[in-house]
Amino acid sequence: MNATSATGTGAQNPVFKTGHRAKAPRDLVWRMWTEAEHLVRWWGAAGCTVGKCDLDLRVDGSFHYQLMFPNGMEVWGKFVFREITAPDRLVVLNGFSNPEGDFAASPFPGDWPRQMLTVITFKDLGDETEISLTSEPFNATVAQQATFAATMPSMFGGWGGTFARLDDHLKDHAN
Amino acid sequence: MTTDPLSETFQALADPTRRAILARLASGEASVSELSEPFEMSMPAISRHLKVLERAGLIERGRQAQWRPCRLNGEGLKPVFDWIEEYRRFWEQSFDRLEAYLEEIQKKDASDERH
Question: Over the stretch A46-102, which tens digit does the pLDDT of each residue have?
């Protein structure tokens, strides 16, 4: 097979995509992602705070962190850096971990991939920076891969159209 | 055999033909014969896949004796979508916090320069 994704794992694998246009120059945005004093100020979902953390910014080094949620739940997670190309590209393995720093199963119910291979790119737009992010399961079981594949918009031909109808259907069943 | 309903969902989704059947049903209900055409499979083979999907709660079958249309069961798929939505939410909320923090430190830098 000739076609492979950017991560070399095969173009047939569905990939999760998201992104953000940051209102800051690229060098500053890069520092936010690679310096612990900045990373702890924004990493995590709304209302989260980073407790203990340890950043070792080098290939095979890691960012290991304790995340406190507003509801009192505490989880540990980590990134392992696979590629660091300042100031435009980071490749990391990310997932939940234990307090000792080993990757661990998700604390949430279900058989989810333990590690995601995530590529973050930073495009220089002058005063702004385009952050693009892709993620795919890494070393996942067939069932975990399938679960992930089934959640991808490509499976249902995009989030619009038929998929929007499915969303409505889900809402109807929510109550 | 598995008793955990989520495991049963994952097993059902592990097969590419069954995922393709779900994708087809996302555009509307279909009969077994309609489903068997694009897959070049016999109707009994398709029926076996449909039984797995039905048992996992991913599809529903109509009650008419002859033409039992299959349709997606959104509720069965919900736990699967919830997970990826949670992952998306995590990143998007982190980006929002990054934006707020960037604004804060750029303001601070600007005022530092004035002093």
Answer: 999 999 999 999 999 999 999 999 899 899 999 999 999 999 999 999 999 999 999
Query: Which residues on B lie below 8 Å from A145 (Cβ)?
Result: 14
Extract the tokens encoding A137: 């399961």
What tokens appear for B53 in the block? 């999907």
Q: Containing domain of residue A148, as a range?
A: 141-175
Residues of A in contact with B100 (CB under 8 A): 42
Could you tell me which CATH class the domain B1-72 is placed in?
Answer: mainly alpha
Which one has a higher pLDDT value, A108 or B65? A108
What ipTM was estimated for this complex?
0.78
Chain A residues touching residue B103 (CB < 8 angstroms): 23
Residue A2 lies in a domain: no
Distance separating alpha carbons of residues A22 and A127, to the nearest angstrom: 9
pLDDT score at A155: 53
Instruction: Report the distance separating Cα A38 and Cα A43, nearest Å.
Output: 9
Name which of A46, A49, A52, A48 is nearest A65 in CA terms.
A52
Check whether residue A22 and residue A94 sit in a common domain: yes
In chain B, domain spans: 1-72, 75-115
**Do residues B109 and A51 touch, judged by C-beta distance below 8 A?**
no
Nearest to B94 among A29, A42, A108 (CB): A42
Q: Pick the residue with more confidence: B52 or A169?
A: B52
